[in-house]
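Title: Prediction job returns without error message
Component: structure pipeline
Severity: low
Priority: P3
Assignee: unassigned

Description:
Job completed but the reporter wants confirmation the result is attached to the right record. Sequence as submitted:
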Amino acid sequence: MTNELNNRPLKYLFLSADKFPPFRVDVLTLFGQEMVKRGHKIDWLLQSEKHEEKFHEQMWCETRVFVGPSNEGESRLSRIKKHFQSIVLDLKVFQLASNNQYDFIQVKDKFLSAIFAIFAARKNKCKFFYWLSYPFPESSIYEAKVGTARYPFLYLIRGYVFKFLLYKIIARWADHIFVQSEQMKKDVVEEGVDINKVTAVPMGVSLDSFKELQDVDDIKFEPQGKVIVYLGTLLSTRKLDFVIRVFALVLEEIPDAKLYMVGPEELPGDMKTLKKEAKRLGITDKIIFTGGLPRPEALAYLKIANVCVSPFYPTPILNSTSPTKLVEYMVMRKPVVANDHPEQSLVISESEAGICVPYEEKTFAQGIVRILLDPVLAKEMGDRGYEYAVKYRTYEYLSGLVEQCYLKLCRGK
């Protein structure tokens, strides 16, 4: 009987800040696809992304989802109502945990709701895991202090409340905590969390999503000159005007180079700021802003790249992130120029897929020029990056690591 219990698939309940249907690749691919392929049974408790009046149950990616009400209003009152609906939804964790024999309950990026889940797990004698994908408490405090928060006082209060909940309650009572990077692991340990109960799971890629590019034919031209590509959000807090100034230095060495900024602006004015910097430098005609695109179309732009860039403005908040774009570049066999950053430095060092430089315009530009002028080196870097990414950063591989951790925690296997 004991052997049968040890060999049966795990069954767990997953609460997440992601709305339904989830689109983030770590949730969609790691859990919605790979963990399901491994035979595990997942129930979700998620608030609807679109307007929804009633709580209901439906199937998604061969998993069961309990979808909660939501509204699409933009007024402050509507947003307050939406948050209240989310809290009421997560209270259903008590009912679901009582009616189902879960091996564990996992909460991702929620703080108050994690408290509900802890009590439900203890009451029903199952494990409780917490998944932290971003340092949200520290980010709120940082934005309030540097003046980028929309409501500084509210951000400050939220940051300190979430920080208390995370490190004094959630971390104390969680059976295990999953974080986004080795740097984030160090950060939470410095806050007093037991290092033995923290596992880093970096961002990865789904090779299936790259197979879709075979059917994408939107890049119908052969660009003249060398092509540099940045893929990702154009959020102002990322200080991407740095890339524009770096590119201006590259043009001094390679006048026919082109820069493609592939990605959406998160807030009105993000792209305007970058275009203003390009105009100031007189290089507007050398830069193409694609705006937001469907994922296959955005990735397709990597086909025409001679080199890809991954700049990360050095802040304590971004230092703990795990850049997806870096691995996406590597899967497309593209050499990379990145700045010193815990995760990026580690990946570039292990893979030899590019050049890692200090966050300084001249040295960053020199790294780009070096690769653009040496096609043989560029190909070698691209090939090494592909081999590394396919071996260590696919969600098929990462799901195996997560599964091993789950089994050890739940069954001692």
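Comment from assignee: result matches the submitted record. Residues 1-5 have pLDDT under 50 and may be disordered.
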